[in-house]
Amino acid sequence: MKALVINSGSSSLKYTLFDVEKELQLANGIIECIGTQEATFKHQFANEQDCKEPCKANSHHEAIKLVLDKLLDKKYNLIKSKDEISVIGHRVVHGGEKFSDSILINNSVIDDIDKCSALAPLHNPKNIEGIIACGNVLPGVSQVAVFDTAFHQSIPQCAYMYGLPYDYYKNYKIRKYGFHGTSHKYVAQRAAIMLKKPLNELKIITCHLGNGCSISAIENGKSVDTSMGFTPLEGVVMGTRCGDIDPAIVTHLVENESIPLKEINSILNNKSGLLGLTGFTNDMRTILKGANCGNERAKMAIDVYCYRIKKYISSYLGVLNSADAIVFTAGVGENNPIVRSLCCEKMHNLGIELDNNANNILSQKEREVSAPTSKVKVLVIPTNEELMIAREAVRVLTNA
Questions:
Q1: Mind listing the pLDDT tens digit for each residue in 14-41?
Q2: Quick check: is 178 in a domain?
Q3: Is pLDDT above 80 for 47?
Q4: Are residues 210 and 63 in the same domain?
Q5: 393 near 89, Cβ under 8 Å?
Q6: Which side of the chain, N or C, has fewer Cβ within a 10 Å radius?
Q7: Mean pLDDT, the chain, as a whole number?
Q8: Residues in contact with 141: Cβ distance below 8 Å, sequence separation at least 6, in sequence order
């Protein structure tokens, strides 16, 4: 069985083709700058080198057609017919309170995803475009929506409600939703396999640290709290997002700097975080080089970043009343031993101890980096959201 995973952005379309039985990635790629003369198609098949070429894609519909044509190209021997694609799994950013699980897509589901667009106006409409395009180009192939927010719909009311007038929740559904759910779910499942225990018997804290960052507390396989909130802006300091701040800062800037609210939103989302603190980059690798060369703002940015993550880990240890494991994943979490060390230092009284030698080994594999004496296992697990979406799509299709 082959599953096609689609992630439709505002002007891009990412795809991955899987042989689901073998959990083998057969091909992946991205079409960027859709609707412009600068459109490009970057693709990789099996062990072939990446190939990037200009293309003509004036819409997501045309982009899907290009992907299908590429997959059918005889020189790659991926699929002989579009009938070999059994299911299409779509990443959908926001499912609101409506969707607590992945779901087989029909017209009613598309309408409900559209109703959630007020919560993710930059993402859900484009996700819908991808769904409709696939329906047109691959008619009859089952499609499944996999929501970033669904995994966190198990968090309790005390964790998702804000201290605002209740009418704002009732009228506008303003509450914590959380994101990166597919990644948190995937690495939690992998952690259970590594620990050789059932997931429904474990307490796990998962740290998804990339340009966007979120921490989740997972108990018995269910998310019980997560750092991102109504939007992906809440939580720890990120690449360009500020994370938790005093909300009065917004009104202070509006009143004293005469900054329009639209610009404030851009500042908090695109000009803050590591970029705002350093003044020159949001890339942790560059920041670490700067810190090593004596750049004081780079040092400060690293300290702030790791301190906030450490604070969330500590608070979730309280929420869970202990933990079996802490998982680091995504670009920074998987590849940066210094960040992992700073996030875990001086936490031995909480049962967390790193093995420095294990932590400093550079590897792309799943591994344990905690000391033998550590009561809480510290794991590094590369995330694979595309594979998780493929698994979800097959699960939903099989149970339909």
A1: 999 999 999 999 999 999 999 999 999 9
A2: no
A3: no
A4: no
A5: yes
A6: C
A7: 95
A8: 82, 85, 86, 87, 88, 134
Nearest-angstrom CA–CA distance, 231 and 181: 13
Q: Are residues 111 and 211 in the same domain?
A: no
Residues 215 and 363 both lie in one domain? yes
- Give me the residue label for tokens 């044509």: 69
Residue 168 in any domain: the answer is no
Cα 298 from Cα 280, distance rounded (Å): 9
Which CA distances in Å does 128 have to 91, 132, 137, 183, 202? Answer: 10, 6, 14, 21, 36
Residue 51: is its pLDDT beyond 90?
A: no
What is the C-alpha to C-alpha distance for residues 141 and 135, in angstroms, rounded to an integer? 7
Q: Report the Cα 239 to chain-centroid distance in Å.
A: 14
User: Residue 73 is part of which domain span?
Assistant: 2-147
Is residue 346 one of the residues assigned to a domain?
Answer: yes
**Any domain includes 253:** yes
pLDDT digits (tens, 9 = 90+) for 308-348: 999 999 999 999 999 999 999 999 999 999 999 999 999 99
Q: Is residue 209 located within the same domain as residue 332?
A: yes
- Cα 350 from chain centre: 28
Residues of the chain above pLDDT 70, percent: 99
Q: Is residue 355 classed exposed, middle or buried when 0-12, 13-18 and 19+ CB atoms within 10 A define those classes? A: middle
The domain tally of the chain equals 2
Write out pLDDT tens, residues 209-254.
999 999 999 999 999 999 999 999 999 999 999 999 999 999 999 9
Give the mean pLDDT of 93-112. Answer: 96
Name the catalytic one among 50, 83, 114, 148: 148
Give residue 19's identity as a one-letter amino acid code: D
- Report d(CA 149, CA 182) in Å as an integer: 8
Clarify whether residues 143 and 209 are in a common domain.
no
Phi-psi region of 46 (alpha: psi -120 to 50; beta: other; left: phi over 0): left
Q: How far apart are CA 34 and CA 309, in angstroms?
A: 36
119 and 209 housed in the same domain? no
Query: What six digits make up the tokens of 195?
Result: 């620990």
| Whether residue 230 sits in one domain with residue 127 | no
CA dihedral 144, 149, 155, 161 (to 10 degrees): -140
Alpha carbon of 153 to those of 22, 120, 237, 252, 338: distances in Å? Answer: 30, 16, 23, 34, 33
111 in catalytic set? no
